[in-house]
Description:
8-stranded mixed beta sheet, 16 helices, about 45% helix
Amino acid sequence: xxxxxxxxxxxxxxxxxxxxxxxxxxxxxxxxxxxxxxxxxxxxxxxxxxxxxxxxxxxxxxxxxxxxxxxxxxxxxxxxxxxxxxxxxxxxxxxxxxxxxxxxxxxxxxxxxxxxxxxxxxxxxxxxxxxxxxxxxxxxxxxxxxxxxxxxxxxxxxxxxxxxxxxxxxxxxxxxxxxxxxxxxxxxxxxxxxxxxxxxxxxxxxxxxxxxxxxxxxxxxxxxxxxxxxxxxxxxxxxxxxxxxxxxxxxxxxxxxxxxxxxxxxxxxxxxxxxxxxxxxxxxxxxxxxxxxxxxxxxxxxxxxxxxxxxxxxxxxxxxxxxxxxxxxxxxxxxxxxxxxxxxxxxxxxxxxxxxxxxxxxxxxxxxxxxxxxxxxxxxxxxxxxxxxxxxxxxxxxxxxxxxx
Length: 405
């Protein structure tokens, strides 16, 4: 069987990845099947370096807080702050502790050193300010948007004052209450104040767009786009908190879908700026509907990748990552008859595979997806081969290069 797929296997190089695609996509996404393994990020770093240098990509976006990521972008573009500081405060989900992420930021800063602004490589987080335990308060995003508008527009145009916003927002602890993730009654997302804030946020974003010519002229396109990020984040967080207060069976799919939408809106905004490389979990980037089990309950949602693909068509490409073993996590050699089992039999330690070509070569010969021995690892489902442009396969993930999960 391995001989049937030899023509679909290549070295992990930019040229091999681009050879799988009809044209250079506006958004090129690389997924991973688990978080916290720096060996996977090392492969990402080298591949992204080649794509930047050989294919002209100018933004690298990762699955991390979009607001915190602004500090990383300031560091890599202008040297603002220090590497230690941006690794500590510029990443969410504990990803700043990753040695491979640190190396990525260090390389981006070195790449930009001495280059004119138009040629600099940009960094972005594209996730919302969300954690598994809940969501951030909308204060930072909403007040930043209001501050920008109030500095450059007549006060009479704004729907409210800063003091009104502050009073409606109340203490941040109301929004970040950890118990609200499992108990909708502890969420403030459907309070009268939250409802008023949603209306005001909508009016502020509409004003930002309606006055775009004036605001871009008075400030810069960069400043206006930053305000748009704050606007997207404010409205997205308020919507997320609204669904945290929901008591229907659709609550968790709504929350997953809302997170996916926030990610997608950020990626689409980055794509407007220029060619963008993206890295996140496979489930956030795939074209097919995503699924998982939480508390034994099956959940489905449309991910950021599926939304961006629907919007951009052929200007979106998705390369998934699959792997053989993570022995220090209890993930041993894959079972025979699985996709990973077939790839594990190849001599290559790391390779890129033509996913659609592989699917055609295998036809219906693969069994069900691989069973996962560890809850943090999501094996690749061969049913997704037809909707995937390529696969990066890493045979063994070594211990000792683990970052923070």
